[in-house]
């Protein structure tokens, strides 16, 4: 009968060292891959939401023509962006929330969420030369919608009581990046010509 020969301490140490090396290579690669996947997912969904916003506005002719001085029409549809500004009322946590909302003056809450993108690993920032997100605005949500000529309307506060209103007639870019620890990014390009045109690069 053959007797089983156990592993020596040296052999176990060698195996553990090899496992440690493999983990040191695999774990950072997995984390980086996960961050890239999160960025790609948010960018793709956000671009699709912008297209859907324009399609809804255009098909129902619900463009926003409101100005604080003359009044005008308030659209039914907006995208609301909370870029880690506002804490969840239940958990207290902050996250990226991008919502396609329907504004209903007859509803108790007024803002009915039709779709939502949520992430705790990805954030948005202005690309060079763009200011659509108003990063220096403080703890406020940002709304975007379209004017009749395809220009992008941005404001803060709320649909009915808006502030920091600005109309963008030229191309604007929003970067989707990991919250920390990576230089990987996707760029969402919002074009006013043709109206509602969105690219992801």
Topology record:
Elements lengths: L8 H52 L16 E7 L12 E8 L7 E9 L2 E5 L15 E5 L5 E6 L4 E7 L3 E7 L7 E6 L5 E4 L1
Description:
The chain has a six-stranded antiparallel sheet, covered by helices on one side. The protein is elongated and about 95 Å long. The protein starts with 8 loop residues before the first helix and ends with a strand. The chain has 201 residues and is an alpha+beta fold. The protein has a single domain, classed as 3-Layer(bab) Sandwich (minor pseudopilin epsh fold), CATH 3.55.40. The protein is built from one helix and ten strands, in the order H-E-E-E-E-E-E-E-E-E-E. A hairpin with a 7-residue loop joins strand 2 and strand 3.
Look up the CATH topology. Answer: minor pseudopilin epsh fold
- In total, the number of domains comes to 1
* General shape: elongated
The H-and-E topology, N to C, reads as HEEEEEEEEEE
Number of DSSP-assigned strands: 10
List the total number of helices: 1
How large a portion of the residues is in β-strands, by DSSP E? 25-35%
Mean pLDDT: 88
Compact summary:
With about 200 residues, the chain is of the alpha+beta class. It has one helix and ten strands, in the order αββββββββββ.
Question: What keyword list fits this structure?
Answer:
201 residues; alpha+beta; minor pseudopilin epsh fold; 4-stranded antiparallel sheet
């Amino acid at each position: 009968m053959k007797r089983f020969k156990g592993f020596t301490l040296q052999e176990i140490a060698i195996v553990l060292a090899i496992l440690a090396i493999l983990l040191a290579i695999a774990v950072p690669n997995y984390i980086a891959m996960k961050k890239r996947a999160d960025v790609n997912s948010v960018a793709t969904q956000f671009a699709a939401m912008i297209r859907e916003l324009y399609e809804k506005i255009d098909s129902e002719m619900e463009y926003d023509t409101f100005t604080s001085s003359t009044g005008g029409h308030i659209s039914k549809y907006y995208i609301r962006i909370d870029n880690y500004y506002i804490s969840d009322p239940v958990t207290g946590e902050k996250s990226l929330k991008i919502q396609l909302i329907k504004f209903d003056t007859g509803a108790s809450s007024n803002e009915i969420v039709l779709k939502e993108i949520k992430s705790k690993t990805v954030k948005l920032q202005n690309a060079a030369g763009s200011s659509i997100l108003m990063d220096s605005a403080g703890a406020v949500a940002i709304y975007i919608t379209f004017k009749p000529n395809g220009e992008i309307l941005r404001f803060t506060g709320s649909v009915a009581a808006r502030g920091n209103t600005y109309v963008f007639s030229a191309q604007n870019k929003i970067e989707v990046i990991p919250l920390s620890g990576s230089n990987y990014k996707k760029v969402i390009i919002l074009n006013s010509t043709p109206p509602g045109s969105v690219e992801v690069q």
